[in-house]
Amino acid sequence: MKNSYRLCEVKGKICYFHGWEHKSRLVDASPMIGGHPGGLVEQHLAIVEYPDGCIHECYPDEVRFCDETHCFLSAMEEHYAKKEANK
């Protein structure tokens, strides 16, 4: 069975990326003038696994992929940038 997890780095630690989680919650309106009107607050979080086996949630901007898929994407970007520069 092929490992489908992606290798990534979060806060300087190498880990496996398992997927995205979408969380939402209802927030009451603030009683303060000009406060939050209330409603649904939503966020996306990454689920990652550290080398010690612990699973954590983190914000998407904390995840930096460093696997073969990312290397291929970087190489393709460089190829197309050179192609555009030669036009």
Describe it for me?
With 87 residues, this protein is an alpha+beta fold. It has one domain (6-85). It contains 1 helix and 5 strands. Strands 4-3-2-1-5 form a 5-stranded antiparallel sheet, with no helix packed on it. Strand 3 and strand 4 form a beta hairpin. The chain starts with 5 loop residues before the first strand and ends with a helix. 5% of the residues are buried. The mean pLDDT is 89.
SSE map:
Elements: E1 6-10, E2 13-27, E3 39-49, E4 55-58, E5 63-65, H1 68-85
Write out key terms for the chains shown.
single chain, 87 residues, alpha+beta, 1 helix
Short description:
This protein has 87 residues and is of the alpha+beta class.
In the sheet with the most strands, the strands line up as 4-3-2-1-5
Q: Which regions contain 5 or more consecutive residues with pLDDT less than 50?
A: none
Strand content: 35-45%
Terminal CA distance: 45 Å
Q: Structural class given helices, strands, pairing?
A: alpha+beta
Helix content: 10-25%
Query: Please, how many domains?
Result: 1
Number of alpha- plus pi-helical segments: 1
- The shape is flat
Oligomer: single chain
The count of strands amounts to 5
Major pleated sheet: 5 strands, antiparallel
